[in-house]
Design goal:
heterodimer; A: seven-stranded mixed sheet; two-stranded antiparallel ribbon; 31% helix; B: eight-stranded mixed sheet; five-stranded mixed sheet; 21% strand
Chain lengths: 204, 688
């Protein structure tokens, strides 16, 4: 009888319509963050998996973008970088500007820009061909992501709640990334895991 | 008289020379000239004054629409008006799509004006109206620069007698902005959501009728994708647009607005949630809210319970017979029972996951599907019918597998039935899929609205529930002991089992016939006869084996060659007086204040058919329906129907049956249980 079943089943499966392949998955909240390998300004290669066990913040940047300038000139970004890295968070600045596009810089220029701003990131990574930006669906500069120690994406969206290029708005805005990091540190779910980012378009 | 005219002319001349002086010096900021202008040359108390922020962009530079799209910021204008004045909002002209690599923004280039209407109070006294304004914007080509400006506009005030004349300098730019004003569509669109898509059903009878040549602009951000243009669908009620959800979609909005534009024509739509959430009904039923639908853990619990109850559903009976027979043979061997129980469970759970994975993937690609979708594919139904028929022939003793056929079966059936135990589990999942047992509906509805991981956990729980009784045989000693002892009676019992299997085949043939045509069904019947003949030939062995295999293969290919063109006609009317469900029919009945009973069913849904037979087609129910003037609408989901899928989803369901009673004006719809009796229906009807 079991043999019959086996044959019959094989016949049925052969007759069933084939399932369609799934679409390529974007970075989704609650799912493993897309893996990547990128090189920093010193030529050192970093894998996302190198940071397993640590919370990772990704910050898309373009130093010529007024929205990025807003958060660095207002010293909001540096402050958050310093506080997060002091708590053991890995903060990666990612530049996806393609060659010849606005925001594309050499490693030396990147170091100089970040030094002038007194930025406190763990590493500044180049994604010149845009593969990582595309995998994450990074749309704007800044565009922020938080990955938990298990490698699961926990936040995708804006740096804060007031979409403007005005430094004066920083004080009035809710700092989404800061709030999410605090919630994760307390073992709570992120209350607002997905927000619409604002800023300049990433110059792929 | 003469003097007055002269004075007025003088006044106007000096005033407009003021204005001209101001206008001649527009504000120059990065890549943009801007100024505050008025359509009319004078302000008239009691009349509407049309102001505007005039923008002249450098070539290739843009500023943004009210919804800027993937990046950018909308332009903002802040007017400082004298006391007693209030300004309207910016009357945004139709924008352009501005692609930037993989992103899309919405905005304007060239020379244009953003109009704002300001009613001038009738009691406004004064010779001159002075308006101060500030504005800010983001201007981009590839790079972006924020900009801002402050403006002063001085307008002479004319008396009521002198009609306000248009200022010729701005006539053209205002005319263009007004020509490009979208008109509000006469009736609302409806919006519904699946896990990955947003479907916008346009109201019927639009003039001009939109089609794919129209450009879509979301007004409400964070709902639909900006970059991907809609797929236009012809539906039973006209036209629908299907779009992927925005990457930043978090919850179904209370109100969703969008614009369709072609040339200077624009239609502005306000989309309301689908019919079920119309006035009086619960809001936000389309998304699992914190209170309305159970959480993941509760859904897993419900799924487990639902899977358990699934064992009592008619479609699963044949497989339970199969498994029970296997268990009896092994009743003395607890270890074997356990191993087979675990393998059977693994088979059930993994195949539930495979089907659920395929469902989620298909939905991700924009298909409007729900649980049981596999039975909407005629080829799948035909395959099941063939499978059950071969099993029935074997049970009835027409043939035993020997020789080469057994060799072929070896792959799946070797190892003391270990693999067979697993594949019985697979089979249980296959046949269970048409049944949506109580508790399952809610759980599956929740599952499809959740991220894939959580959804799969719920489907796995469902499979576990289905497998639990067989699993328990190996672990609860009392159960195995309660099984009858094996003996010669088992042979008789096995032959008896052929009959429920043949009944299942009959049912599947009927479903296949409903989905396709009598002709296609006849081909499938012929294939079954061919299989029986081929199996019989095979039994003869020897040289007969080659023609036997030929006949078997031909019989398998036969129904598949018949590309089963789905029959297009409506399902034949049953005895009960019902109308076919459409969203419009439901909406119009509800608008007329009539009570409505909605029955969502499918030919392959045994529970649905049982409910209809037992409860809904009873004369007592028919009489009660008529007595209370209840409209009875029946939706047939045997074939794919995205309207019905959306309707099911609006109740947090992903499959049939679903029974909804709308008691009448101002009252919320009541969802009836998934197993109906005459009394349940009468009781519900009594309540209206």
């Amino acid at each position: 009888m079991y043999k019959t079943l086996g044959v019959a089943l094989a016949l049925t499966l052969a007759a069933s319509p084939a399932a369609s392949p799934a679409l390529a998955a974007d970075a989704k909240i609650g799912e493993p963050a897309p893996a990547f390998t990128l090189t920093d300004t010193a030529g050192v290669t970093h894998n996302l998996s190198d940071f397993a066990g640590k919370t990772v913040v990704l910050e898309w940047t373009n130093h010529d973008c007024p929205f990025v300038k807003k958060h660095y000139n207002g010293e909001n970004m540096q402050r958050q970088q310093a506080e997060a890295t002091a708590d053991g968070v890995v903060w990666l600045v990612v530049n996806s500007s393609a060659e010849g596009k606005q925001g594309h810089v050499s490693p030396a220029q990147a170091d100089q820009i970040q030094a002038e701003w007194k930025a406190q990131q763990t590493a500044y990574l180049f994604d010149t061909d845009g593969t990582v930006g595309t995998a994450y669906g990074a749309k704007t500069t800044p565009h922020m992501y938080i990955i938990d120690p298990a490698g699961v994406l926990r936040y995708n969206g804006a740096i804060d709640s007031i979409p403007s290029a005005n430094v004066a708005d920083i004080e009035k805005a809710e700092q989404y990334v800061e709030i999410a990091l605090a919630e994760l540190a307390e073992g709570k779910p992120v209350s607002r895991p997905l927000t619409q980012p604002y800023g300049c378009s990433v110059k792929y | 008289m003469r003097l007055r005219s002269l004075l007025l002319v003088l006044l106007l001349t000096t005033a407009s020379s003021h204005a001209a002086a101001a206008a001649e010096a527009p504000l120059r900021t990065d890549h943009l000239y801007s100024r505050l202008v008025a359509q009319q040359a004078t302000a008239v108390p009691g009349e509407i004054l049309r102001l505007g922020l005039w923008l002249q962009h450098d070539p290739e530079w843009h500023t943004y629409w009210r919804n800027p799209g993937d990046s950018g910021l909308p332009t903002r204008v802040n007017l400082e008006l004298p006391p007693g004045f209030s300004a309207g909002a910016i009357a945004w002209p139709i924008p352009e799509r501005l692609p930037a690599g993989p992103l899309v923004n919405f905005g304007y280039g060239g020379t244009m004006v953003l109009p704002i209407e300001v009613p001038v109070p009738a009691d406004f006294a004064g010779d001159e109206l002075v308006i101060e304004a500030t504005a800010d914007w983001l201007i981009c080509r590839v790079e972006c620069l924020p900009g801002e400006g402050s403006y002063t506009l001085r307008l002479p005030v004319a008396t009521e007698a002198d009609a306000a004349e248009n200022d010729p300098r701005w006539g053209e730019v205002f005319a263009a902005a007004l020509r490009r004003q979208p008109q509000a569509a006469a009736s609302a669109a409806t919006v519904s959501f699946t896990a990955e898509t947003v479907e916008l059903q346009l109201p019927a009878g639009l003039n001009p009728a939109p089609d794919a040549a129209w450009t879509y602009f979301p007004v409400t951000p964070q709902v639909t994708s900006n970059a991907i243009e809609p797929r236009w669908l012809e539906t039973g009620d006209g036209t629908a647009l299907v779009l992927p959800k925005s990457d930043y979609f978090t919850a179904a909005p209370q109100r969703f607005e969008f614009l369709l534009a072609r040339g200077d024509t624009g239609l502005l739509f306000s989309a309301v949630p689908r019919a079920d959430a119309a006035p009086g009904a619960a809001q936000g039923t389309t998304a699992p809210g914190p209170g309305g639908t159970p959480g993941v853990l509760a859904a897993i619990g419900l799924a487990l319970l639902g899977g358990l109850i699934l064992n009592l559903m008619p479609c699963v009976f044949p497989v339970l017979f199969l498994k029970a027979a296997g268990a009896m043979e092994a009743a003395g061997d607890r270890a074997l029972l356990r191993r087979h129980g675990l393998l059977y469970t693994a088979g059930v759970v993994s195949s539930f996951l495979v089907v659920a994975g395929a469902l989620l993937a298909l939905r991700a690609s924009g298909e409007a599907l729900g649980w049981g979708f596999q039975l909407q594919a005629p080829a799948f139904v035909a395959g099941l019918a063939l499978l059950f028929f071969v099993l029935a022939m074997n049970f009835a003793g027409l043939f035993e597998f020997r020789g080469r056929l057994a060799g072929l079966g070896q792959g799946l059936a070797a190892g003391h039935g270990d693999r067979a135990a697993f594949f019985t589990g697979v089979l249980a999942c296959l046949v269970a899929s048409p049944c949506t047992a109580p508790f399952m509906g809610v759980a599956l509805g929740v599952a499809l609205a959740l991220p894939a991981g959580a959804a799969l956990a719920i489907f796995a729980a469902l499979g576990l529930g289905l497998a639990l009784p067989i699993l328990a045989l190996g672990w609860v000693p009392g159960l195995a002991r309660a099984l009858p002892r094996p003996g010669p009676w088992m042979d008789t019992f096995r032959r008896l089992l052929a009959f429920p299997l043949l009944l299942t085949v009959t049912w599947l043939l009927w479903v296949y016939g409903e989905q396709t045509s009598v002709l296609a069904m006849s081909w499938l019947l012929a294939a079954l006869v061919g299989i029986a003949f081929g199996l019989w030939l095979l039994r003869a062995g020897g040289a007969w084996r080659i023609p036997a295999w030929g006949v078997l293969l031909a019989s398998l290919v036969l129904p598949l060659l018949q590309s089963p063109a789905p029959s297009t006609g409506p399902a034949p009317a049953a005895a009960a007086a019902h109308e076919a469900w459409t969203p419009d029919r439901l909406a119009s009945a509800r608008a007329a204040g009539e009570p409505v009973l909605v029955n969502m069913t499918a030919a392959w849904c045994i529970t649905c058919l049982a409910n209809e037979r037992v409860a809904l087609s009873s004369p007592r129910v028919a009489a009660a329906l008529e007595e209370r003037g209840v409209r009875y609408l029946k939706g047939d989901w045997t074939r794919r129907d995205s309207d019905i899928t959306a309707y099911l989803e609006s109740f947090g369901r992903s499959g049939v049956p679903l029974y909804v009673l709308y008691p009448g004006p101002g009252r919320e719809p009541v969802v009836l249980p998934q197993l109906l009796t005459v009394d349940i229906v009468l009781q519900a009807l009594d309540d209206i």
